[in-house]
UniProtKB/TrEMBL annotation:
GO terms of molecular function: ubiquitin-protein transferase activity; zinc ion binding
Protein name: Peroxisome assembly protein 12
Coiled coil: none
Top-level taxon in the UniProt lineage: Eukaryota
SUPFAM superfamilies per UniProt: RING/U-box (SSF57850)
Keyword Transmembrane helix: yes
Pfam families: Pex2_Pex12
Domain U-box per the UniProt entry, residue ranges: 273-334
Cellular component per GO, a single term: peroxisomal membrane
Membrane disposition: Multi-pass membrane protein
Biological process according to GO: protein import into peroxisome matrix; protein monoubiquitination
Entry similarity comment: Belongs to the pex2/pex10/pex12 family.
Organism expressing this protein natively: Papilio xuthus
Length: 334
């Protein structure tokens, strides 16, 4: 009983706030989209050499994420983003923690790696498949065959499962906030883990500041460049680079909305607009789920314009920049 009480005291000291939990989750969700933009840029600049990076990006990121998370779980008992915010994974069961020391028990370490790396990869792949089926459904390509009916059912089941999962995440976080549970997320609860603030790192015998000091004072003989030093430098670049990307995304989100810009002069009716009257400019067929793009005023099929905007970020006709969030569904009578 005394050991268990000591464990609880140790665990509850410096319990991270919900803001730290949310911040580390946001940082973890920033890395993949940022690197994907880089892969897309390389594929555009030199498609012959780098097109494969965009085509196999999910698998490349899976390998990178595995190496990164394995390193942090092994050395810091935390994920990449948790370590950045000074958090530490701790087993709720006292026997596990006191038996294994600083590192997580091997089973919990493997379980954490599985939930951090493989599960998000599978989730992204399933989302891509469901999104493709949803576009086919919106375009009216899914008929009454057994396989098409199964796809329609899968779309509905996925929507329900996604709603239930997000609701469960919210409930788990609310319970953590009120002190009803020690696990801030579902994956932590599944593994029997909680988080606490990591202890201050031990001072390093030789760090980058010592190296630069030796170079600045001209003591070249004292300069030592080791693999651990390079590794720590590389990891710091990755950490602060991810934080910088997150800061830029926040800055972009805080930018003035499009509604605050001055209204442009109405465009002149072009021959294209006359030729595409009551038709989608992309497929040149009568509208299916008519949707207007406010940046240009053209009306498209929802499936046609959403696919183009998602892939290119521009209007299919005018090439003006836009986002999928600006699409407006039209309900036409007759």
């Amino acid at each position: 009983m005394a050991v268990y009480a000591a464990h609880l005291t140790r665990t509850l000291q410096g319990t991270p706030s919900v803001f730290q939990i949310a911040a580390q989750e946001a940082l973890g969700a920033t890395v993949k989209p940022a690197l994907k933009r880089l892969a897309e840029y390389l594929a555009v600049v030199n498609p012959q050499r780098y097109a494969w990076c965009e085509r196999w990006y999910d698998e490349l990121y899976l390998l990178l994420d595995f190496c990164l998370q394995y390193h942090y779980l092994k050395h810091y008992a935390a994920s990449f983003s948790e370590c950045f915010y000074g958090l530490l994974r701790v087993p709720i069961s006292p026997s596990n923690e006191f038996h294994s020391g600083v590192r997580l028990p091997e089973l919990l370490e493997k379980g954490s790696l599985l939930l951090l790396v493989l599960v998000p990869y599978i989730k992204d792949k399933v989302e891509q498949i469901i999104e493709k089926w949803r576009e086919d459904y919106e375009d009216g390509k899914l008929g009454k065959s057994i396989s098409h009916q199964a796809r329609k059912s899968a779309i509905k089941l996925y929507s329900i499962a996604h709603f239930v999962l997000e609701a469960a995440k919210f409930v788990q976080l609310a319970r953590y906030l009120t002190g009803s549970t020690l696990s801030p997320a579902l994956d932590f609860a599944l593994l029997g883990l909680t988080v606490k603030e990591a202890p201050p790192p031990e001072p390093e015998e030789y760090c980058w500041s010592d190296l630069f000091k030796s170079l600045r004072t001209g003591q070249i003989s004292d300069v030592t460049l080791t693999f651990p030093l390079l590794g720590r430098g590389l990891l710091n670049v990755v950490q602060y680079g991810a934080f910088g990307v997150q800061l830029l995304r926040w800055w972009e989100a805080k930018a003035s909305p499009i509604t605050s810009l001055p209204l442009p002069t109405p465009p002149q009716k072009s021959d294209q607009a006359v030729r595409w009257k009551n038709k989608c400019p992309v497929c040149l067929q009568p509208w299916k789920v008519p949707t207007v793009l406010p940046v240009s005023g053209f009306v498209f099929c929802y499936g046609c314009v959403s696919r183009h905007v998602r892939a290119n970020g521009t209007c299919p006709v005018t090439k003006l920049p836009t986002t999928e969030r600006t699409l407006i569904r039209l309900y036409l009578s007759g």
